[in-house]
Amino acid sequence: MNKLEAFGHIAALAIRGELVFPTSVNAALRVQLALDDPDCPIDTAISLVLAEPLLAAKTVAISNSAMFNRAGAPVVTNVRGAIMRIGYQNLFALAAAMVVRQFGSKISNPEVRAKAEKLWDHTLAVAALGRLIARDVTGVNEDTALFAGIVHEVGGFYLLSRADEFPGLLEEDPENWHSASEEIITREVMRKLCIPEPVADAIEGLRDSFMSIPPDTLLDTLLLANHLTPVKSPLQEPQRELPPHSDSAIDLFIDEQKLAAMLDQAKRDAAEMSATLLV
After folding, report:
1. What is the pLDDT of residues 232-259, one digit of tens each?
2. CA-wise closest residue to 23 among 65, 46, 52
3. Residue 133 and residue 93: Cα distance in Å, rounded?
4. Is the pLDDT of residue 5 over 80?
5. Residue 129's closest CA among 236, 270, 271?
6. Which residue in 83, 65, 31 sits closest to 193, CA to CA?
7. Which residues, other chains included, contact 164 with Cβ-Cβ below 8 Å and sequence gap of 6+?
8. What phi and psi, each to the nearest 5 degrees, are found at residue 253?
């Protein structure tokens, strides 16, 4: 089965809802489903998190990270305090990050596993930088930007998780024939993971959209983060030719000094997230 056939087969399965997820993903999905309701009682959220020791440990750890404890508040020592500090939206993002990581947990092919690790590094880099861009440039909700960055390559992770079964997925694709199938697969995976529609729309727009002037949307935030991060995706397609003066347009909103500071902060935040979320 060549690459085009493999993509077509997986896309057909996705359309029928026949997605294959690691069994370890189910716990995080249960948390996501509950938190998808903004009125979910905190005691319910706490119970779900405590039922999964790994998620509980990560929730407390990330609540004490510099990203959420910059004012030097007392150390959080329990799940209730952690959830109160980071909020449902970031707990939802944490559960999603666990899902994303678990896609690579059963990969046996060393080449594919190496790609999954590089894709994880890229994911965290975009998430961390996107959060700063949201805060300082586009004005969108920074927690939403962080979440969108964490899940923006979820389709790629899912495909890598299936590469052991479909070796053709690793073949070169100079004419990029698989794009339509990959778009279908990404959409169905996001639907299964309960990715909110505004976030899913922004992720789907990454393939064919250009940044608006001034940048002020979640899509613009993701486009900027992907463009500016030095940590590139190993699955990245050949870059389209950018519109004339696109770099100078970015300079209007992020000057050289500001960009250097944001990249430095994003690098530190991504390293901290990686240590906290490592599985």
Report:
1. 988 776 555 555 555 666 777 888 899 9
2. 52
3. 18
4. no
5. 270
6. 31
7. 106, 107, 108, 109, 112
8. -110, -25
